Amino acid sequence: GQSYEIRMLDNRKLGELPEINGKLVKSIFRVVFHDRRLQYTEHQQLEGWRWNRPGDRILDIDIPMSVGIIDPRANPTQLNTVEFLWDPAKRTSVFIQVHCISTEFTPRKHGGEKGVPFRVQIDTFRENESGEYTEHLHSASCQIKVFKPKGADRKQKTDREKMEKRTPHEKEKYQPSYETTILTEVS
């Protein structure tokens, strides 16, 4: 339920895709499972979640905090998806809220579990001649894990302690921690 900012940036090279200059694009955000084995049962997993949490959504946009988003929509049948239009030439920040925690999809439900990793995926489209946003421009994603605040603090503390015990050579295998995450381009 906490709001996290995702800054939407126009990362075209100079002169690339001039046809979207001055036009809006549509971005679709989805929270999906990161693990391949859970991706195969994603539909059943999400249906089970819906059944246990009637009326709730997995992903929402915090509209009052967001900047530069136009026509934000959340399809009632797709609990893990939100979409909006935006102008690549203007400052755009969308604040998203994930309303499920990583341990809701683990077999044991009594705390202390690792929790399953999710992925936030953003697909961006431009308008076609018919005015529909179907022409794919770009996709990017990053892995996330969602915990309740106390659980998240505990997890960060144990992760830090584990890291401190590793040798400098072992530490090189891990990427350093940053204030912000650059989403990875998906081909």
UniProtKB/TrEMBL annotation:
Entry annotated with the keyword Nucleus: yes
Primary location class: nucleus
Subcellular location per the Swiss-Prot or TrEMBL entry: Nucleus
Composition bias, Polar residues: 177-187
Residue span, Grh/CP2 DB domain: 1-187
A GO MF label: RNA polymerase II cis-regulatory region sequence-specific DNA binding
Keyword terms of this UniProt record: DNA-binding, Nucleus
Residue ranges with Basic and acidic residues bias: 150-174
Keyword Transport on entry: no
Residue ranges, annotated region (Disordered): 148-187
GO cellular component: nucleus
Name of the protein this chain belongs to: TFCP2 factor
Organism: Orthonyx spaldingii
